[in-house]
Specification:
It holds the Pfam family RAG1_DNA-bd. The chain starts with a helix and ends in a 7-residue tail after the last helix. It is of the alpha+beta class. It is globular. It has six helices and nine strands, in the order αβββααββββαββαα. Strands 1, 2, 3, 4, 5, 6, 7, 8 and 9 form a nine-stranded mixed beta sheet that branches. The protein folds into two domains: about 210 residues, no CATH class; about 40 residues, no CATH class. The relative contact order is 0.17.
């Protein structure tokens, strides 16, 4: 029949990976064949109806995660084999840790372009699959079947959203990344069912916002950036406190 043929054709397309969420994600379409979407698509008009003078493109968060996992399929299956977790016994209990990064990309203006007037700075929000672990049935401890060897490399970092905006323009950033955050929150309470190594497997995701640079963290969290009295952006210890107590604060 024609629909079977269509589905078979779809699965041969590069980048097409059928998947499912249990329970279904709230306020997110169940369609899994979603390409690049307009980053402003969820943006409601402001009070004075002034259009946003920016351009943004992004992937839907869950589609990007599926694509990143499928890129690592061989490594994950190899990791299962190394730990003797034969395919048949291991279909659930997978946990994936995702590092989120957001950073300004500097001045990207094109001086010769005749297109719309847009901010001359760009910001990129991206994700990295840090590790995949599995808790086999009847086992006490989870086994890590994949760990990213170069977590800070450009090669392991997958862009999720690109936007023409200055990273200090808090309002625009919040409006564009709002739907991304909503999708992430929906995924925290659901499991992804995705074929991996020929079997449907169930994944849960943990998100860590550890890839923001100090300037972004200062914007978001209110801590100081480089040159400040604080040691780092992960705690509120000052340099003076850390120098007196090196046990709690290894710098």
């Amino acid at each position: 029949p024609l629909h079977t043929l269509r589905n078979a054709e779809k699965e041969l397309l590069p980048g097409y990976h059928p998947f499912e969420w249990q329970p279904a994600l709230r306020n997110v379409s169940p369609a899994c064949q979603v390409g690049i979407i307009d980053g402003l698509s969820g943006w409601t008009a402001s009070v004075d109806d002034s259009p946003a003078d920016t351009i943004s493109r992004r992937f839907r968060y869950d589609v990007a995660l599926v694509s990143a996992l499928k890129d690592l399929e061989e490594d994950i299956v190899e990791g299962l084999r190394e730990h003797g977790l034969e395919d048949s016994s291991c279909t659930s209990g997978f946990t994936v840790t995702i590092k989120e990064s957001c950073d300004g990309m500097g001045d990207v203006s094109e001086k010769h372009g005749g297109g719309p007037a847009i901010p001359e700075k760009a910001v990129r929000f991206s994700i990295t699959v840090m590790s995949v672990s599995v808790l086999a049935e009847g086992e006490e401890e989870a086994v890590t079947v994949f760990r990213e060897q170069k977590p800070n490399s450009e090669m392991s970092c997958k862009p999720l959203c690109l936007m023409f905006v200055d990273e200090s323009d808090h309002e625009t950033l919040t409006a564009i990344l709002g739907p991304v955050v909503a999708e992430r929150n929906a995924m925290k309470n659901s499991r992804l069912i995705l074929a991996m190594g020929g079997l449907p497997r169930s994944f849960r995701f943990h998100f860590r916002g550890t890839g923001y640079d100090e300037k972004m963290v200062r914007e978001m969290e209110g801590l100081e950036a480089s040159g400040s009295t604080y040691v780092c952006t992960l705690c509120d210890a000052t340099r003076a406190e850390a120098s007196k107590n090196m046990v709690l604060h290894s710098v």
